[in-house]
Design a protein that fits this description.
The structure is a homodimer. Chain A is α/β, with parallel strands linked by helices. Chain A folds into 3 domains: about 45 residues, lambda repressor-like DNA-binding domains (434 Repressor (Amino-terminal Domain)), CATH 1.10.260; about 130 residues, 3-Layer(aba) Sandwich (Rossmann fold), CATH 3.40.50.2300; about 130 residues, Response regulator (Rossmann fold, 3-Layer(aba) Sandwich), CATH 3.40.50.2300. Chain A has 13 helices and 12 strands. A 6-stranded parallel β-sheet of chain A has the order 2-1-3-4-5-11, with helices on both faces. A 4-stranded parallel β-sheet of chain A has the order 7-6-8-9, sandwiched between helices. Chain A has a two-stranded antiparallel ribbon with strand order 10-12. In chain A, strand 8, helix 11 and strand 9 form a beta-alpha-beta unit. In chain A, helix 1 crosses helix 2 and helix 1 packs across helix 3. Chain A is elongated. At the A-B interface, helix 4, helix 5, strand 2, helix 6 and helix 12 of A face helix 4, helix 5, strand 2, helix 6 and helix 12 of B. Strand 2 of chain A pairs antiparallel with strand 2 of chain B, so a sheet runs across the interface. The first copy, chain A, binds a DNA duplex through helix 2 and helix 4.
Chain lengths: ~325, ~325
DNA sequence: TTTCAGTCTGTGAACGCTCCCAGACTGATC
DNA sequence: GATCAGTCTGGGAGCGTTCACAGACTGAAA
């Protein structure tokens, strides 16, 4: 392979200096139309491409951001929602010619690698995914003063790490209200982990609507996995056999709840109505298909990226963005 | 934030020259134990981290590889299998301190961006995912002579792009044999797209077992999506109402086939046995749970990464790796 | 005519690293 | 004590950019 052309080669081909080429490359002021045209032509002729390493060396900017997935290894991606977010982020960043590096932060070794990466100046910004409350990584990033945003709030850091998120609380209210309207009287809930915004806020929304009817014995906690949905449902029907509805804080857990109910001989929605949350891809494949709350995942991802790019460009402090959810009625409720 | 320490600072702190520090950093020969210790200590004290840009500028190596997802935008990630592959790749690469950049290659604009990225020397290698037959990107990468491997064969380029893959053909044979052993007589199949290895080879395996009984009218094609599974199944039962089994080349399509069968009033597995492929996460949530073929996805991903790193390290030509599949019996067959 | 602001261009000096070469120092061998 | 191979170290050059600055040229205003 022939050696790659450098800015010198372009300058020579265009009959101008390095400086002028650089100015054209960076859309700087003060380049005559003639010089501009000559440089453009020379770039096309030589097939020149800027060397980002050389550029980064002097600008201290990398043209890439890192997405950090803070889940224990086994769980990463278990939630199909990740896919949408990643895809959307790549696309939006790509349009701005920013590339996306993905790193895991499931254990201390991983976290150290992330910190080293960021401290090494290899990313202009950090996009946090599913970061749990108290994650030490957040403090470290904060002290490095690198632009950071989160997709979904970081509990306890809502005022430090800007974020975009779906309106979990209102979404939970929508579903709970719907169950009430359908005439359900004994409504239980299976929540997510209580150190995640989805876990906390979806329970709050549930309680907002039911008030004191949301008794402790009608609440069980899961960890977003299907298996945890199964066992939480089992505990609920054992404790309150006459419940007639359950709001499950994620579709995957709802799928688990459905199998438990089926195994227990309860008809859905005849005996028990089941409401999910997410409108993820499993929602359509369960039997019966899940009535659920759709989160505008793509929009959340887009907003997250927008926030990050604003920060990276020095666009000053930004406010969290909360996007509305929507009830999707299928057959389970 | 204080300016980041450079190799000069470390050298000064250790009382040696830049050259010696660089030698320690790169595990070069000829460094005295004393100098080595002094440098290590100085690195710890100063909190020094190498600047990869500066290093790349001279070594022409980046310490990162790019994963290219060659699917039309809407489809990327639809298949939950992506998640496993990405996660595994990140982890294995991370262990070697190689970072992973993900790019989309769904349209020409995307492809051009990928080529520019690679031509710009920003990656040491390319990991292709689900690349279709005839993708122009492959030729371009070939001409750039950058190490490239694929996760799953690239049709028509099997001898050019090394790959790791599950044994699709044998997997299809396993399932078909199983259906025959269960006493099924009229066995149909829903294939994947015929420009993908999974589409082609799973059909071949099916035909291997059934011989001339695999008549054209028992074959329908899908595009991996659930919807395509639904409609393919509808065409099959219309054309051959007395079929008693169907081998579907992916779990997602099988989920679609299940709903069509249910809507048509056929009992599964009573009237019609359904066999899937992938053992992806949907396989357990369908009703009834899918009997399917498990692909060793994580191992495939690991092998793919290993191949790539071997190439990147100049480890010479490598051979494709084919890994065995396994029948998972649940309830649908 | 002079002055001046505005426009445009070229050049040297970084950025932080690795590579290579020259040279110093060891100890063993002739 | 000279030679030599092996070990170890320092420093100059260069990787491909951007940035700051100096200087040249314009045309309009004083």
């Amino acid at each position: 392979m022939a050696k790659r052309p450098t800015i010198h080669d372009v300058a020579a081909a265009a009959g101008v200096s390095r400086g002028t080429v650089s100015r054209v490359l960076n859309d700087d002021r003060y380049v005559s139309p003639a010089a501009h045209a000559a440089v453009r032509r020379a770039i096309a002729e030589t097939g020149y491409i800027v060397n980002r390493n050389a550029r980064s060396l002097v600008t201290q900017r990398t043209g890439s951001v890192v997405m950090v997935l803070s889940e224990p290894h086994e769980k990463v991606f278990e939630d199909p929602n990740y896919s949408t977010t990643i895809r959307t982020a790549i696309r939006r960043l790509g349009e701005r010619d920013v590339s996306l590096v993905i790193m895991l932060a499931g254990d201390d070794g991983d976290r150290e690698r992330v910190v080293r990466y960021v401290r090494g100046g290899h990313a202009d910004g950090v996009l946090l995914m599913s970061t749990h409350a108290g994650d030490p990584l957040v403090d470290e990033l904060e002290s490095l003063r690198i632009p950071a945003v989160a997709c979904g709030a970081v509990i306890g850091k809502e005022n430090v790490i800007p974020y975009a998120a779906a309106d979990d609380r209102e979404g939970a209210r929508q579903m709970t209200r719907y169950l009430v309207e359908q005439g359900r009287r004994k409504i239980a809930t299976i929540t997510g982990p209580m150190d995640t915004p989805g876990g906390i806020q979806r329970l709050e929304g549930f309680a907002d609507v039911l008030g004191r009817k949301a008794s402790r014995k009608l609440i069980e906690h899961g960890d977003w996995t299907q298996l945890s949905g199964e066992s939480a449902m089992a505990r609920l029907i054992e404790r309150t056999p006459d419940l007639d509805a359950v709001f499950v804080a994620s579709d995957l857990m709802a799928a688990g709840a459905l199998s438990t109910l089926r195994a227990a001989g309860r008809q859905v929605p005849g005996d028990v109505a089941v409401g999910g949350f997410d409108d993820s891809s499993v929602a359509a494949t369960t039997h019966p298909p899940l009535t659920t709350i759709r989160q505008p995942l793509a929009e959340v991802a887009e907003e997250t990226v927008r926030l990050l790019l604003t920060l990276v460009d020095g666009g000053g402090p930004v406010d969290p963005v909360i996007l509305p959810t929507r009830l999707i009625v299928r057959e389970s409720a």
